[in-house]
Design brief:
Blueprint: E1 24-30, E2 35-42, H1 44-53, H2 57-74, E3 82-89, E4 93-101, E5 105-112, H3 114-122, H4 128-132, E6 135-142, E7 150-155, H5 161-173, E8 177-188, E9 192-204, H6 232-241, H7 256-264, E10 269-271, E11 275-276, E12 278-279, H8 285-293, H9 297-303, E13 309-312, E14 319-322, H10 325-328
Parallel strand pairs: 5-12
Antiparallel strand pairs: 1-2, 1-10, 1-11, 2-9, 3-4, 3-6, 4-5, 6-7, 8-9, 13-14
Bound molecules: zinc ion.
C-alpha cells in the first residue's frame, strides 16, 4: 500500500526514542492505514488542577475527562489559539469548562450543586450520565481577533463526554474518529493518591476523501452502521482500538508509546515530537480589570465587600483585589 504522508527526516520510529512521560501529547501516524492521532497520559498537571479545587471525586473524574478532550483536540491546532470545551446541562454538575491554549497551557473548572451531588453519591448513582444530565457540549476553536471563531455543539442527553465528543467528530467534522478516555485515582507507593488520565484520539485521513465515508447514523431502531461502506483500513483501526483494555490507558507502567506499539506496530506506527502540557492560567489583574470596567455603577457597588472588590479566577482560584474608586468614574 502506498504511503501517502510525507515524513520529515527527523521523525524516528517508535523505540528510537525514550518515553515522553506524563503530561506530554504524543502525535502519531499509522501510514499504511491512513490514520493519525494523538495520545496522552495526564498526571501531575491533573493533580495540580484537581487539588486546587478539592472537587468531590465524581466531579474530579468529569473534569479530568474534559481536560483529556481539550488537550487531545486543542493540541491539533496548527496556529496560535485556544480550544474550549464547555458543557451546560441540568444535572448536578451543570457546567464543565476545560481550555487548552497553544502551545501547551491547560486549565479547567466545574460548577456543581453540592446537595444534589451528595444525594446521588449516597444513592450510589454517580455515572457520568446521571451527574451531567441533559444539555449540550460545545467545542470552540478561537484563533484570535482576526479569525472566525468556530463552534460545534452536540447534545449531551444521557451520554458520556467520550460519546458526545465522538458525535462531534461525526456531525461537525465528518472525519471518522475513535476517541478513548480513561480516568483513575491511583495509590502509588510513597506518593499517596494520584490522578491519572489516559486519552487517545485516532482519525482516518486518507488522501482520497471518498474513502472517508462514515456509515449511516444508526436509525431510530438502533440499527448498526452500514458496515459494507466503511473503508477496510479504517475498519482495521477501529478493530485495533477496540482491543484497548479497561485500565490499559491509566496504568502508570504502560507508557502511551507502549500502547501505540501494541496497537499498531504490525502496520508501522511513527511518533512525532509532541507538546508538554502545563497547568497554566491566562488570568491577570489587567484582564479582570477589563471585565470590571464593563460593569455598571450598580454592579460595581454590589461587588464591594469591606471597602474593596475581590475577584477570584474560577479556573486557578487566584484572587485579585481592586479599589472601587478606580471604577466609579467610568460610570
Ligand atoms: Zn486564573
Amino acid at each position: 500500500m502506498l504511503e501517502t504522508v510525507r515524513v520529515p527526516d527527523d521523525i524516528k520510529k517508535l523505540g528510537d526514542f525514550g518515553f515522553a512521560g506524563e503530561d506530554h501529547v504524543i502525535p502519531f501516524e499509522v501510514g499504511p492505514l491512513d490514520a493519525r492521532g494523538r495520545v496522552i497520559a495526564l498526571g501531575p498537571v491533573l493533580d495540580a488542577i484537581l487539588a486546587r479545587h478539592s472537587y468531590p471525586e465524581p466531579v474530579a473524574r468529569l473534569v479530568a475527562e474534559a481536560c483529556l478532550i481539550a488537550v487531545l483536540l486543542g493540541s491539533s491546532l496548527k496556529f496560535e489559539g485556544k480550544f474550549i470545551l464547555q458543557t451546560r446541562t441540568d444535572g448536578p454538575v451543570d457546567m464543565l469548562v476545560a481550555d487548552f491554549s497553544t502551545p501547551g497551557s491547560l486549565r479547567a473548572y466545574a460548577q456543581f450543586d453540592a446537595d444534589r451531588l451528595d444525594a446521588l453519591v449516597a444513592a450510589g448513582e454517580t455515572s457520568a450520565q446521571t451527574l451531567l444530565g441533559s444539555g449540550m457540549l460545545a467545542l470552540t476553536i478561537d484563533q484570535g481577533a482576526y479569525t472566525q471563531r468556530y463552534q460545534g455543539i452536540v447534545e449531551l442527553d444521557g451520554k458520556t463526554l467520550q460519546e458526545a465528543a465522538h458525535d462531534y467528530f461525526r456531525q461537525s467534522e465528518q472525519i471518522p474518529t475513535e476517541i478513548r478516555l480513561e480516568v483513575a485515582k491511583l495509590v502509588r507507593p510513597g506518593e499517596g493518591e494520584k490522578w491519572r488520565a489516559g486519552g487517545l484520539v485516532v482519525q482516518f485521513l486518507p488522501e482520497a476523501p471518498e474513502r472517508m465515508r462514515i456509515g449511516d447514523l444508526p436509525g431510530c431502531d438502533g440499527a448498526p452502521e452500514a458496515e459494507a461502506e466503511v473503508d477496510n483500513a479504517w475498519r482495521e483501526v477501529q478493530a485495533l482500538a477496540s482491543t484497548i483494555e479497561p485500565g490499559e490507558m491509566i496504568d502508570p507502567t504502560i507508557e502511551p508509546e507502549r500502547l501505540l506499539y501494541r496497537l499498531f506496530h504490525e502496520h508501522g506506527v511513527r511518533v512525532f515530537p509532541g507538546v508538554q502540557v502545563a497547568d497554566r492560567c491566562s488570568c491577570s489583574q489587567d484582564r479582570i480589570r477589563g471585565i470590571l470596567e464593563g460593569f455598571s455603577a450598580e454592579e460595581i457597588a454590589e461587588s464591594i465587600e469591606e471597602g474593596k472588590i475581590a475577584v477570584s479566577c474560577e479556573f486557578c482560584s487566584t484572587t485579585y483585589e481592586f479599589d472601587p474608586a478606580d471604577f466609579a468614574e467610568a460610570n
